[in-house]
Amino acid sequence: MRQLETKLFINLIIMSGSIFTSSIGKKMFMSISGCVLVLFLTFHMCMNLALIFSDSAYNAICGFLGANWYAVAATVVLALVVLLHFALAILLTIQNRKARGTIRYRANARENGVEWSSKNMLVLGFVVIIGLGLHLAHFWLKMMYTELMGAHEVALGTAMVAPTDGAAIVR
């Protein structure tokens, strides 16, 4: 019985190592990180929808999610998830091209039900990176980063606005 337990334990260790190194394991981690990012985007969208209904509700959310420890921790975790997702996407793309070598697919016709976007995820990923960079530069730097640096006002044209006055920054 002890020998069987030892074999199972060794197989479990070998199997867990292959999860991190196999193509399927990397795709699994990429899908999990993608789900986390979709959940974040849904949460982010719901928070931004408050601006449609009430400036004060949006500012309350901005005040709550300002530069406090849990917002900073969530930002760090989110940044790590984004980096993991991007790194796995690039790594898997390189591995797939390397495995194929110079041999290309014989038929390049689009199969029924296969969208252009599913064949060009890396290109779309770079478009997302550009959009994310613009969003961070225009909103995150003016709100959360400004508050983290200890500033209590941000220049918005000729006016000075509090970083927690998100409605003024957005409008």
Tell me what you see in this structure.
The N and C termini lie far apart (70 Å). The chain has helices at 2-21, 23-53, 55-64, 69-100, 116-119, 121-148, 166-170; strands spanning 154-156, 159-161. It has 7 helices and 2 strands. The mean pLDDT is 79. The protein has a two-stranded antiparallel sheet. 76% of the residues lie in helices and 4% in strands. It is mainly alpha-helical. Strand 1 and strand 2 form a beta hairpin.
* Spatial ordering of strands, largest sheet: 1-2
Largest sheet: 2 strands, antiparallel
Secondary structure: helix percent: over 70%
Distance between the termini: 70 Å
Number of contiguous helices: 7
Q: Strand-residue fraction?
A: under 5%
- The protein's oligomeric status is single chain
Outline the low-pLDDT stretches. none
- Based on secondary structure, the structural category is mainly alpha
Strand and helix order: HHHHHHEEH
The beta-strand count equals: 2
